[in-house]
């Protein structure tokens, strides 16, 4: 591969999105809103109709945020052939289901069909690129670009390469996502689950434990975050939040004063067995919390809320 033939991050014009589910479709909507031409491919028979429904549903929120010059729903095309979709790409974003064997085969197929100078990024939420790139003829141009749902609204993308990934490719990918308007964590090493997923997974597991033990309901757990620390986390992360909790002494005073509480058995940090009883308790709790609202209604409410926060932060 000759990196000199790769277009600069700001010169990308066509993005190929492989996989058109919730994450892949979210990427399609985002790239269209940022003014790119998008070529999509998905093997499902109804993929195109589902994709266009998702993009059209997201478009009002994206319009409210502000569309880039040239942004248009008309710039989306859906190919029936993977090779035809990849051949047109300046950049590829793969968003297939979380199945390692599927990822390995699909990435190898994408690698074989995509011009050698084009970077191939994966939306995987847990697998490392090292274990996914093993069948690629050009693994040096494969990299993780892990988004958060919905990708068309949540700014963060975590970028990290595998053992065979070129450092230049990781840098290029981070630069591309930044140019496309994303907030980027460029990780220096592979960590299972990356950064944000590990943090939110710890909270999720403790929440399941609390439901299972009858210590809190689904509604109470959600309220404890939305009307509690979640409001602070939207402005400052947990580290800076605790830094401020130390008063004038900052984090040093915080750790000196409250450090011993880390030994308190406040959390379990091990996932409980997902028994039918626990599963039903979580499902029933979510239905109670939804209070008859449909998925589309809940998505619209979420989108409006995220937009309001982004505007309050001056990021929109």
TrEMBL record:
InterPro entries: 3-OHacyl-CoA_DH_NAD-bd (IPR006176), 3HC_DH_C (IPR006108), 6-PGluconate_DH-like_C_sf (IPR008927), 6PGD_dom2 (IPR013328), NAD(P)-bd_dom_sf (IPR036291). Residues 14-189 form the 3-hydroxyacyl-CoA dehydrogenase NAD binding domain. GO terms for biological process: fatty acid metabolic process. Transmembrane segments: none annotated. Residues 193-261 form the 3-hydroxyacyl-CoA dehydrogenase C-terminal domain. Keywords: Oxidoreductase. Belongs to the 3-hydroxyacyl-CoA dehydrogenase family. It holds the Pfam family 3HCDH_N. This is L-carnitine dehydrogenase. Pathway: Lipid metabolism; butanoate metabolism. One of its GO terms (molecular function) is oxidoreductase activity, acting on the CH-OH group of donors, NAD or NADP as acceptor.
